[in-house]
Amino acid sequence: MAVRIRSPLRWVPLALLLAATAVLSGCLGMGEGPQTTIVPFSDHAQRIQDLYVLVFWMAAGVFVVVEAALVYATLRYRRRPDDVLPPQVHGNTRLEVAWTIAPAVVLFVIAIPTIQAIFAAATPPGSDGLEIVVTGHQWWWELEYPDAQVVTANEVHIPVGRPISFTLKSADVIHSFWVPRLGGKMDVVPGHTNHLYLTAYQAGTYLGQCVEFCGLQHANMKLRLIAHTPEEFDAWVQSQQAPPSQAAGKAQEGAQVFARSACVGCHTVAGTPAQGKIGPNLTHVGSRTSLAGAVLDNTPENLARWLRDPQEVKPGNQMPNLHLSDVDIEALVAYLESLK
Ligand SMILES: [Cu+2]
Q1: Interval between CA 186 and ligand 1 midpoint (Å)
Q2: Residues 6 or more apart in contact with residue 290 via CB below 8 angstroms
Q3: 250-338 has which fold?
């Protein structure tokens, strides 16, 4: 025989379950996370959010109607002691037509704005658009500004208020480009060019990452998108176009170590014989806030740690341990930090 628990403690498991659901689903502090998808910061993200809100409320309406009917029917028609078998029926044309038309209307109401949003998202900006070519590499992002002739890595600088046209390519396998607060995500496919258009509303730093499993260091293929005011953006472009300042002192020694090491085969520093294309362009690496797929903050300590053994930081990545001496590492750090 089943034992009935009547103590108020019987609600404890339910309360714990609800609390765990809220915590695990990230519902507490909803929308405040650095990678939230429900607080839009671009026109593209706003369009998706509008659809999300529409679908949410329609689903909520359906839920209430269906549950109300269910609860009503359960209580009103529950079995009673003196019940006899009710009349058995088969088919009800009116009901069947109703429950075919009702979902069709719901889908129609969702379909119209959805199709509008799909077309809006696929419309390239006019002549005021800024093109940025994003190339996914295992496991970092290459960023090229064709008009300004600027190449950088892992940090996407854009001006607010201006439509950005991302041209997405891959150097190896399938990746996916996503900056949640600005919308996306868009696959980055070898041998095929994809496009993503958006206009950022608000200056700030937005975190992003690769969202298509692309091998060992997929989780460490992150990026930072920095949205500037138009003036700040122009200043950034100019600083990136300028040749790196002439190295002096310790940095000068580092430049020599760099020039006679394997670095030049994989990395480019504009205005020097180093023109390698396998790793990130280092022309202005000192001006970046992060290193190695935005995994490390760009500090002298982290740079030294990277150079001492890149495989310790990101096991399996394409930069080998070059077994540099401490003296060389110190000089290289001074040189790379000077490349503003
Ligand atoms: Cu990936």
Answers
A1: 12
A2: 154, 155, 224, 296, 297, 298
A3: Immunoglobulin-like (2.60.40)
